[in-house]
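Q: My labmate handed me this sequence with no annotations at all. I'd like to see what the chain might look like in three dimensions before we decide whether it's worth expressing. Could you predict it?
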Amino acid sequence: MDPVLHVGVNAVARLQSLDLAPRDLHRPLEAAAAEARLCTDMDSPGMAGYVFWSRTNRFFRERQERHGWTYSNSQTILRCIHPSRRFAITAVSGSGKVGDEDAAWSGDVRSKNPKGAAVAKLVQRNFEQLPLFSLPGFPVDDQEINAIPTWFLLYKSGEEGLSFELSMPVEMHGKYVDTWQERIILPDNPFAGPQFDIKKLDAVLEGPAVDVPVGFRGAI
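A: Here is what I predict for the chain of 220 residues:
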């Protein structure tokens, strides 16, 4: 199977084929950013990033639960499972060219943090089972959550803002997931700007200097 990149209206259409709309990704990311802003320097280092990861998964699950989606924490992978049980989605921090449609299929976009054996098995199953799951009527074993193809909602923050994409991982190199079968990059990213840099959520953004004229009015 050749890799597929979905951008523009094709990205929205592919998302709809997964029973999702752009707002189903936007709202959890937006709400998670608000939660991460509650972290301060009094929290442990990296807490804002941890909160963002956990809350993105939680808010996505809560949003989709009303549409019949379920969830699983099996093997500490926070999956949200489509009602058909034919695929799942988990939010994962990324690095490299996340959200960049010019990125190569392998090596340019990867998971930010090293992954263990559970994710390695997940990625291997994605690679092995995607052709099967593309067949209409292919039966899904309800008991084997860990065998369901799992998309990654990859996100990355930086000074330019928060970039994200929904992608299907199929290979790892070393401990990092870095090869993708499909990438969905939505148009009109609403998270552009330094205010969405997770590492700087607590920082006071500097605006243009304001000159305030002060005149000497004599001794009081």
